[in-house]
Specification:
Elements (H helix, E strand, L loop, with lengths): L28 H6 L9 H27 L51 E5 L6 E2 L2 E2 L1 H10 L11 E4 L7 H12 L8 E2 L14 E5 L5 H9 L3 E3 L1 H7 L11 H6 L13 E4 L6 H12 L19 E3 L5 E2 L7 E2 L1 H15 L8 E2 L5 H19 L7 E6 L2 H12 L5 E7 L16 E3 L2 H15 L15 H4 L14
Parallel strand pairs: 1-4, 1-13, 4-5, 6-7, 6-8, 8-9, 9-12, 13-14, 14-15
Antiparallel strand pairs: 2-3, 10-11
Helix pairs in contact: 2-10, 3-12, 8-9
The structure holds magnesium ion.
The site of magnesium ion has 8 residues, from loops.
Length: 488
């Protein structure tokens, strides 16, 4: 139920955290790889904080999710429901004490460095493909929508936001660089979750792993960056034994990059991770099937019971996605379905239980909740969960379904908004019903702002008179450099 927020006085922090803010618009991928100073906005510090803050909680969620999902049909409604009401939305979810997770105070303008207050009772979370970007290009209204969230709105407030995409295939930092350029804003990895982000929590659980999908060696690099110690790719396996895929020959570049030098038939592959969309469905399916049917993950063996293979993790389960083509394209969920069907057919009826992360899985939304809380604390100095999170998506089966299911159990209100610029086609009945449907992401942002400050009656924060401070020029901001705000 909506409650009418009360106006509170401005809370001005005595000093801002030590910040070095550089433009991600001019940074290169090499900058990211090298870890130099010219990296994206607030890159490493927040990532460290996040990993320290979230590791145990999210790992616990994943462990629970694995048990749940492993015994469920992913298409079943129950697959996205937690087994107990205290899981999502509980204080533990936020990594906070009950006092800390109490409902946020009404609109309390915080004073960031640019002089604009931040709305603290609500936030936004965005899907990317079909909402902000399509076919590698920004959706026209997306740039305006981001400006609006960053303060160019009639209420004069900044609104915290994060990104939650099922896509992947690059490091979070690289995806942020891409998105920063596409949307003409600076985006931090600390406000970004992609499909395979949760897999970083599983590096201690498995030794040698097969990583599938993505361009070239990119996903091997991502996996190693997460901390996986022994990463094998389908290219390594084909290079080791070219008979693995009779009609698939490695290119000269693939031969050069694929690793060799050990007998892979002696190596136990403990888990399979599909990090990004496969570029070779036939070859990747063959290799995953070989391992799923193997004795304990050893290539070249064949189980008699077909239940000894390694676990298979997919970074999401979207059947289709919105790309440059006029019609939707097959996604990772289609590969997953194909693999399970093939396994059933070749084993004459055995079921293959695979595990998917990403939306609409509940742990992904729990992870997003923790990330949003950390982002609001670090960037906006708001140390409490928002009352409302507007989730903007284009796919009813993942975005809307996940948001609605998570909202049934979360303490704060996750409000689903469907846009018409992606997977969902106007005139059709969405498989999962959003609480609002709008033309595009700009209309979605306007909707949220107007609902908060209009319908819900929130007071527009009083504008302070702090002069904007240009962080891009300021470099490191010395403690105490921030003037005290004067209210009027
Ligand atoms: Mg989408």
């Amino acid at each position: 139920m909506d409650t009418k927020p009360q106006k509170k006085s401005l809370q001005v922090p005595p000093k801002r955290p030590h910040l070095t803010r550089l433009s991600s618009m001019t940074s290169t991928k090499d900058d990211v790889s090298d870890g130099g100073t010219d990296v994206v906005v607030v890159p490493h510090r927040y990532m460290l904080k996040r990993s320290q803050s979230f590791s145990s909680g999210f790992a616990a969620s994943l462990g629970k999710a694995r048990k749940e999902v492993g015994s469920m049909d992913i298409e079943d409604e129950a697959a996205v429901l937690p087994t107990s009401p205290e899981s999502p939305g509980s204080p533990e979810m936020f990594g906070a004490t009950p006092e800390e997770s109490a409902p946020a105070t009404p609109i309390t303008p915080i004073t960031p460095l640019d002089g604009l207050p931040s709305a603290d009772t609500f936030a936004f979370a965005f899907d990317i493909d079909g909402v902000l970007v399509r076919g590698g290009q920004a959706i026209p209204e997306a740039i305006e929508a981001m400006k609006m969230l960053n303060g160019e709105n009639k209420y004069g407030v900044k609104v915290p936001y994060i990104f939650l995409t099922n896509g992947g295939g690059k490091t979070e930092a690289e995806r942020c660089l891409d998105l920063s350029r596409q949307l003409d804003i600076s985006i931090s990895p600390a406000q970004f979750i992609c499909g395979h982000s949760p897999m970083r929590e599983l590096t201690e659980a498995y030794g040698t792993v097969l990583v599938v999908g993505g361009e070239g060696e990119k996903c091997r690099q991502v996996a190693e960056g997460y901390g996986f110690k022994d990463v094998i790719t389908p290219g390594d396996i084909i290079k080791h034994d070219s008979a693995t895929t009779p009609f698939r020959k490695l290119t000269a570049e693939e031969l050069r990059c694929s690793k060799s030098g050990r007998d892979l038939s002696k190596v136990k592959i403990e888990a399979i991770f599909v990090f990004a969309d496969s570029r070779d469905w036939a070859g990747d399916c063959q290799i995953m099937l070989d391992l799923a049917m193997s004795k304990g993950g050893y290539l070249g063996t064949l189980s008699e019971t077909f239940d000894e293979g390694p676990p298979i993790f997919f970074s999401h389960s979207d059947m289709v996605w919105s790309a440059a083509h006029a019609n939707v394209r097959l996604g990772m969920g289609a590969l997953r379905r194909m693999l399970e069907t093939l396994f059933r057919d070749v084993t004459k009826g055995k079921e293959l239980d695979t595990i998917a992360f990403g939306k609409p899985q509940i742990p992904t939304f729990e992870f997003a909740t923790r990330l949003l809380r950390q982002w609001r604390k670090d960037e906006h100095e708001i140390d409490a969960p928002p009352e409302t999170v507007y989730f903007i998506g284009d796919t009813p089966e993942s975005d809307i379904r996940g948001t609605n299911e998570f909202n049934k159990h979360s303490e704060n209100d996750w409000f689903s908004v469907l846009v018409k610029t992606g997977v969902w086609q106007e005139g059709t009945e969405p498989a999962y019903k959003p609480r609002a449907t709008v033309d595009n992401v700009l209309e979605a942002v306007k909707f949220g702002l107007d609902r908060e400050f209009g319908e819900k009656g929130a007071k527009v924060p009083t504008k302070n008179i702090i002069e904007p401070l240009c962080l891009a020029d300021a470099g490191e901001v010395p403690a105490g450099a921030i003037p005290t705000a004067t209210l009027r």
